[in-house]
From TrEMBL:
Ranges annotated as biased composition (Acidic residues): 378-392
GO function term, MF aspect, one: ATP binding
Gene3D superfamilies the record matches: P-loop containing nucleotide triphosphate hydrolases
Protein name as it appears in the record: p-loop containing nucleoside triphosphate hydrolase protein
SUPFAM superfamilies according to UniProt: P-loop containing nucleoside triphosphate hydrolases (SSF52540)
Amino acid sequence: MARSARSSSSSVTSSSEDEQPKVINGTKHVLVNGVSKDEADENKEPEEKFEPGMKSGMKNLYSGKEDKKGRYQWQDEIPEDVGNPAENAETAKWALLVRNVKVYNDPRRVLAIHSIVVQSPLLKKLLGGVLKNYPGITVGLNRLEFSGRFEPLIHRWAELQKAIDALGDETEDDRTTKEHANLLLDVLTKEFATLIETSQDMISKQVMTYEHLWTLFQPGATVFSRQDGQETAMSLQETRYGQDAKGVPCFWLTCKYLDWDGTKFGSNKLNLSIPAYGGTRKIIQLRAFPIEYHHEAEALRTRLIERGAKAEALAGPNYKAYHGIAWRHGAFGSKDKYNVKGRIVIDTYGWNRFNPSYAIFVTPLTQKDPVQRLGGSEEGDESDGESYDGGDDSGMPIDGHFADEDDAAKHAPLTTEQKLICTPLLRGYSLKNKQWLNFFVNCVKEIEWQTDAFDRLVLPKNQKELILGFTESQRKYKETFDDVIEGKGRGMILLLCGPPGVGKTLTAESVAEEMKVPLYMMSAGDLGLDPRRVETKLQDILEMCTRWNSVLLLDEADVFLEQRSLHELERNKLVSIFLRVLEYYEGTMFLTTNRVQTFDPAFQSRIHISLDYQELSIDSRRMVWKNFLDSSQQEHTISKRQLEELARMNMNGRQIKNILKIARLLATRKEAKLSHDHIITTLEVTQHLHNESQFTERARGTIYT
């Protein structure tokens, strides 16, 4: 009997233990008669079989309880600790939804506003006017949410107050809007009253602390700064607190300015930093500050708009004069500065072609800037006029190539605000320094042309007409002639040969001045003597000259065009390079030499016109003397008889120029007018070098006769 009772008790205990739920991997498993629910389900009548993925409907899985490492298993039951959502149909009826979080280590309060959701359509309509054009704000969304430091509302605090004060009581909507707006104003005032009061007090006194800098800079505002010593205005995109490259705390400003990439105007970004500082600092002493705080704000805006208009006028290739500092990128991020006084060619497209590492690329003004949207985004947003949607800062142009230069003239005129934030930099080539440099807009001048240069060139009239006619026709009609191979033989090469000082170099210079085109004077130093680099440099120079329709002068060309020999292989390489490259030059080139007999025969077929300059005749020397005397501002007392006497002296043009230069200095020293005696005195002192050279020539002639 006892055994039977014990057995029965054991059976009951076993049965109750089997029915207790077991938890495995965070999932409850209930055993019924020693069989789990899953096993019991398997013992049911078989359901209809489906191929994988073919049963209509969906199956929900839920994350189970996490372990100490945050790992979990998926389960098909809803977790027990899941409550109801805080925001629902009940909360959706309120005009404002204010989320609060706990605050620690602050004895003055225990809660702080985390975010505010504006749900009132009337209030959103009011905020649409207050926050118009504020980057990142789309007031037309169903959920307009503000969080963080509530920058949009703090920056537009004055506008918000004015908009609320302007509300009337005529209609029910007006009264409701005013009620909702006052609710928002009360919440913000209670939370940020001290911040707003402190910020406005400092702004009224033209000072600011580092902690409150963000209240001073409103996205979309025009910011003033100095870049490379130049006054610069930029449009502020966003601000943030962070660190610089050295880990020093600073306040970052991301700004936008306008630049020209050779084919179009577009926007570029620039990051400015304000290092951390203690106490207050005058706003105008900051590295960057809103332009309205400048002591000459209106005059500054006028200057910057005028400079922007000048930069727009200089878009595309331009041949100008320059007087000022220019710079280029040096080693380790430095800037190498140059003092440039001379003529330059402004050419951003050429800059990109010959300096691809520092090429300029811009975001087109017709696209949209990437801005951080509050509460999402919406099509048709009018928050920012010139922005783009890609946000690619890789440093490469779109699709890997630059736009066609022919499209440059089609760009729309810049607006006043766009001219205001236009860059002060131009990219171009200094013909004197032989370098691609960054130039400043305000240092660019118009060229003062020497209109009488070609007229004062002492050459036979028919010879001058021939040279000018050929060069001008070549410039106009070079596209009409081509070789069997496209692009070959379009150029015009003129050889000017003769003794020194008879006007060979002056011919090329005066032709360029007469045609008002750049003159590129190429010498051996520009190319070097390494054949591997000579060809690349020569091709670049010829391409630049073709782009600018410039006159190319290769002075003392016999250095590169000397006849090839069987023993000087390096020189043969140089000559071969010139023979091949000149064939494809499409511009006008002047070669000058006084050793034409040393030219390689292969060059004869590549030279279109060869002009032989004879020793100056008496009439030519008289004209040279007269031109130099008339061009000087210094008065002289030289009579026609004395001029005739000077013309009979056997000198070339360069010697005449040097004699007159020294004679003028002698006359200036004595504070007298330039006289015949001054010239004779100079001749007696300096002519010995000329006499020695003539004696050497006569001696050499007697040896070889």
